[in-house]
Specification:
By secondary structure, the protein is an alpha+beta fold. The protein contains 6 helices and 6 strands, in the order αααββαβαββαβ. β4 and β5 form a beta hairpin. The N and C termini lie far apart (about 80 Å).
Length: about 180
């Protein structure tokens, strides 16, 4: 059962289908479609709408990052800065993206740490870093790694001022 369309609607629908098929046929050969060439006003309107949508989506994304506490606006409102929470999130992502590289000398890195309970968020963060770099838990607060992650581990210990709580060792092997 087909619906009877008014002549104007049917014509516009057919024109739309023709232009769509021209777009598909013309797409591989040019950046602008036949519809855009035939109707520059329509093309400008479409591009304006797409820009507004992209701007709105970006604004929503920035709002989300602010509401989660990852960024703050600068005083002038023209820029953003990462918060410490945002930096931690970015570092976690960076560490997940780091490829595991076995140490060339075959040695293992052993990390001992005793971070006080009052610094629990820092302890949890450090543990997350260890996991992301490929460390394996040998026992509570003793972790081992065969990857070339010593420099990155030392950098994190310095950056978060954990020197008095973390000890790192390079060892040849471990007998269990």
């Amino acid at each position: 059962m087909s619906m009877k369309l008014p002549l104007t609607d049917k014509f516009l629908w057919e024109l739309y289908n023709v232009l769509e098929s021209l777009d598909r046929a013309h797409q591989p050969f040019a950046h602008r479609s036949m519809r855009a060439v035939a109707s520059p006003e329509w093309y400008k309107l479409k591009k304006s709408y797409e820009r507004q949508q992209a701007k709105r989506a970006f604004s929503q994304f920035i709002y989300y990052l602010k509401s989660q506490g990852y960024i703050i606006s600068t005083g002038s409102g023209e820029g953003v800065l990462l918060t410490s929470k945002g930096e931690q999130k970015a570092l976690r992502v960076k560490l997940k993206l780091v490829k595991e590289r076995p140490r060339r000398d075959g040695k293992l890195i052993m990390a001992f740490f005793d971070i006080p309970e009052k610094k629990r968020p820092l302890r949890d963060l450090f543990r997350d870093f260890l996991v992301a770099m490929g460390y394996k838990k040998l026992q509570q607060s003793v972790w081992m790694c065969a990857n070339d992650a010593l420099e990155e581990t030392e950098r994190i210990v310095r950056e978060y001022e954990l020197e008095r709580y973390v000890k790192l060792f390079l060892i040849k092997s471990i007998e269990l």
